[in-house]
């Protein structure tokens, strides 16, 4: 069903993007007789082209964070304090596997009980998991947690650690927070709920003009009629995965900031202004809202020190490799050596054919760094990303992958000395781990007092 090289995705506007999706489907899937036929061959269409040339990765840098020089750590701390790091928070996912709605808005103290966790885990596992089994895995019950949504916790943790850094450096915490820049990516449908959260917390102490948002678009699916693909407004709207998120950042007028007194009016940036803005940063850290290690370590100075050194060596993307979750092996990016390319690569699991999740040994933590981020942004703007497909609800959608940026810019893969399993809030099976990590966040010395002070200033 394939015929030549498919057209490149067009990022001039959303309408151009949609049109190019139709063109890509028409050329790549030419000859398909039905969406059901495409669904039956989805794995084949998405296969990584060098699948037979893969082996265990060769060039992962093992980082001994205890061996970093004082100079390197000081450089990282100073870069953060001076606002040279762009903090990107990816929170647009639909959370379909978790079955609790948008992850940013999940408030475990309010939304979860031991009985509900047991019910969700049983539904996922296809067998009964009793409340007592769940209770045995919990250090504290959900209702004992601070009543904060996951996204609120995300922002508070960063502000909490920045204030701590300011005190350690003898600086004014307010000024350190005011220097920071961030990009918050949420789904279009949940934007105003997230914005209300920022209003309520007075932007968590950050300067509103430097808190930028991207409302990730969702799209209707494609249907197939008489051999022709059409963009079908009768189909459900869905996000086009996290790869579309980074492509949308390159479009004109998509990144914006909101004044705290403007009632949601969006002050949009031209694409050229976004490029100029990005050139001012030493690194962009792309956090994922589901990462649970973040809850007690938003600022990883040893890793940032290494990233800044790698930037000096010409790397423009740094991906951390972790072990898969032994309790519930998950899909995601797999690190491997590609003999054909002669380099390590990161490949999304749905491009790996019939490979099972438990066979993925080296998994992307999805906590990526983009040293000197303009370089990666420029490459995405010029070249776009590959466009894998997915059939959902009887319609065709695309699911480009953020990690495929590793094929566009020089990329380093790093791992810690002890290869820890991934800690993500991905599915009901990971809820007990998530509750324990949230409890660990609450127990940080001074965290509850910090939250109380911030709450009092609302």
In short:
The protein is α/β, with parallel strands linked by helices and 458 residues long.
Write down the overall mean pLDDT: 91
CATH homologous superfamily label: Spore Coat Polysaccharide Biosynthesis Protein SpsA, Chain A
- Main sheet attributes: strand count, strand direction, barrel closure: 7 strands, mixed
Count of separate DSSP helical elements? 16
CATH architecture: Alpha-Beta Complex
Write the layout of secondary structure elements.
Blueprint: H1 14-28, H2 35-40, H3 42-45, E1 54-55, E2 61-63, H4 70-81, E3 85-91, H5 108-111, H6 114-125, H7 131-137, H8 150-169, H9 173-179, E4 181-187, H10 191-200, E5 211-216, E6 218-219, E7 222-225, E8 228-231, E9 238-239, H11 241-248, E10 255-258, E11 266-268, H12 271-278, E12 283-288, H13 301-312, E13 317-323, E14 333-338, E15 343-348, E16 362-364, E17 368-371, H14 374-383, E18 389-392, E19 395-398, E20 411-416, H15 431-442, H16 447-456
Parallel strand pairs: 2-20, 3-4, 3-12, 4-5, 13-20
Antiparallel strand pairs: 1-14, 5-10, 6-9, 7-8, 10-11, 12-17, 13-16, 14-15, 18-19
Helix pairs in contact: 4-13, 6-7, 8-9
């Amino acid at each position: 069903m394939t015929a030549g090289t498919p057209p490149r995705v067009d990022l001039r506007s959303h309408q151009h993007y949609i049109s190019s999706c139709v063109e890509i489907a028409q050329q790549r899937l030419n000859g398909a007789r039905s969406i059901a036929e495409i669904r039956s061959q989805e794995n084949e269409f998405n296969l990584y082209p060098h699948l037979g040339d893969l082996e265990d990765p060769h060039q992962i840098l093992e980082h001994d964070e205890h061996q970093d020089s004082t100079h390197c750590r000081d450089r990282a701390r100073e870069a953060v304090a001076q606002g040279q790091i762009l903090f990107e928070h990816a929170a647009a996912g639909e959370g379909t596997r978790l079955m609790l709605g948008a992850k940013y808005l999940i408030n475990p103290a309010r939304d979860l009980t031991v009985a509900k966790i047991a019910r969700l885990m049983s539904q996922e596992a296809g067998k009964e998991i009793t409340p007592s089994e769940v209770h045995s895995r919990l250090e504290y019950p959900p209702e004992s947690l601070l009543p904060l949504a996951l996204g609120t916790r995300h922002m508070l943790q960063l502000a909490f650690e920045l204030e701590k850094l300011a005190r350690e450096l003898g600086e004014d915490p307010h000024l350190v927070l005011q220097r920071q820049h961030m990009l918050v990516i949420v789904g279009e449908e949940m934007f105003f709920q997230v914005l209300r959260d920022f209003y309520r917390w007075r932007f968590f102490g950050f300067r509103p003009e430097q808190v930028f948002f991207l409302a990730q678009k969702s799209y209707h699916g494609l249907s197939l009629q008489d051999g022709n693909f059409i963009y079908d407004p009768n189909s459900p709207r869905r996000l086009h995965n996290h790869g579309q998120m980074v492509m949308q950042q390159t479009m004109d007028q998509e990144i914006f900031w909101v004044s705290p007194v403007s009632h949601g009016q969006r002050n949009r940036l031209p694409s050229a202004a976004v490029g100029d803005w990005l050139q001012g940063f030493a690194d962009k850290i792309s956090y994922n809202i589901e990462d649970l290690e973040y809850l007690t370590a938003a600022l990883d100075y040893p890793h940032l020190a290494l990233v800044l050194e790698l930037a000096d060596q010409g790397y423009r993307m740094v991906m951390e490799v972790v072990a898969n979750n032994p309790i519930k092996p998950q899909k995601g990016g797999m690190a491997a050596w590609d003999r054909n390319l002669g380099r390590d690569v990161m490949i999304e699991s749905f491009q790996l054919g019939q490979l099972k999740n438990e066979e993925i040994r080296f998994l992307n933590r999805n906590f990526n760094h983009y040293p000197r981020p303009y370089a990666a942004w420029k490459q995405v703007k010029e070249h776009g990303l590959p466009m894998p497909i997915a059939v959902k609800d009887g319609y065709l959608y695309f699911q480009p992958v953020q990690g495929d940026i590793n094929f566009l810019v020089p990329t380093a893969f790093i791992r810690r000395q002890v290869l820890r399993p991934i800690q993500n809030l991905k599915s009901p099976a990971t809820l007990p781990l998530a509750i324990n990590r949230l409890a660990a966040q609450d127990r940080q010395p001074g965290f509850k007092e910090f939250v109380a002070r911030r709450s009092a200033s609302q």
